[in-house]
Amino acid sequence: MSKEITSLSAAGLRKAYLRKDLSPVEVTKIAIAQIERLEPQLNAFAVQATPEALLEQAAMSERRWLDASPLGPLDGVPITIKDAIRTKGWPTVAGSHTVKPGQPWTEDSPAVARARESGAIFLGKTTTPEFGWKAVTDSPKYGITRNPWNFDRTPGGSSGGSAAALAAGIGHAAIGTDAAGSVRIPASLCGLVALKATTGRIPTYPPSALWRMGHIGPICRTVDDTAMMLNLLSRPDPRDWSALPPSGEDFELPRRSLAGLKVAFSPTLGYARVMPEIAQVVELAVRKLEDLGATIELVEAPFPDPTPAAMTMFAAGIVHSQRHLDDAAMAMLDPDLRAVIENSASVDREAYMSAVDQQIALTRNNRLFHQTYDLLVTPTLAVAAFEVGRNVAPDYDTANWMSWTPFTYPFNLTGQPAATVPCGLTAEGLPVGLQFVGDLYADALVLQAARLFETVSPFGHALPSCL
Fold first, then answer.
1. Where are the domains of the chain?
2. pLDDT at 41
3. Alpha-helical regions (H) of 173-275
4. Which of 75, 164, 287, 377 is deepest in the core (most CB within 10 A)?
5. pLDDT per residue over 353-394, tens digit each?
6. pTM for the full model?
7. What does residue 422 show for φ and ψ, rounded to 5 degrees?
8. Which residues does the annotation mark as catalytic?
9. Confidence of residue 209 (pLDDT cuts 50, 70, 90)
10. Rounded to the nearest 10 degrees, what angle do helices 335-344 and 307-321 cross at?
11. 422 bridge partner residues
């Protein structure tokens, strides 16, 4: 029975609580046991709540459900928070020895506040590469985090601890960050769903080091859970003055078919080098969209390669965020991160503003593109999960982790909503993701299309062997 419970979605838990088939105490005990069993291999946690504190929260939730008065859709649902997001009572050190944990830590970020108000049970904070600088998850402070589909492989990053824990049946949803793909990358490598919503849809505080490229986003087991999380996390918070006003939309509303929608499929975006097996799995998955009624059109290069602009803006943000570090603190950093900072320190005003010009041109191009196409679909990544201890997949540019994640960062530049959904497995049994991208503000359409695809996905209900 514990296997069935650990693989339940948050929505599935909520239904079980409503029917009184399960209790938050029972579910939390199983989560605690799952942490004790798998965390030594996964290394997904930066901070863990004590079993006593978790069971106290669960008991309070159980009483609310017995009284038919749950606080919200996450009441009694165990979840995790990435160690880059402020959480009251727990340190937020972003995987770095340079951040001193002995601070009051008295504030929740907007997303954490919404989850707490909803009655979520916080299992702990999950690992990230130092300051979220790369797309795999290891750091000087916490070491290497591993993928539950194969403990010798990376879960991706930078929200890798969140995805690894969830895929291993630890918790039933997670909250991560995404400045160049950091919820979609690990979700794809771990067989999960994740959403980077339209810029400003989910209030963010403190602001990201990459400003408007940085997002907070949910990682979930299903698209239904993702839509529920977006309804919750998109509620207003005055600390983010740049957040969008409430849309008035219910992101959980379904769609019956994709009939009438014109969908562009771009296997490479015109510049990516994709592993042949990934390309094959994705192409087979895209055919399912035709079965759902969509008109599919192959578009090889919907926009010019935005990699130089993304690399410049990412590097400038990282350098600026660490400008206060003295030589002693710099020596404590991940050596590869220190090299990035040193090599990027010369990014000048002209280079940065040229990248901004490219960002503006890309955003304009893509808004016009969506006058013709309702959605764009791509592979989520160019590769499957590769060996831990590497920053870059084999045979890709060793100096640039973006070389194997070419499909995610363009939409951080433009602010468009983008979601990844599992679409199949490689011959080694590793997950592959399909990415759905919509026009600005079309979050609901992205989720509706992803939900319909999920019903016919070749991925089925596969689970990692540790479950």
1. 2-456
2. 96
3. 184-189, 223-233
4. 164
5. 999 999 999 999 999 999 999 999 999 999 999 999 999 999
6. 0.97
7. -60, 140
8. 82, 158, 182
9. confident
10. 110
11. 433
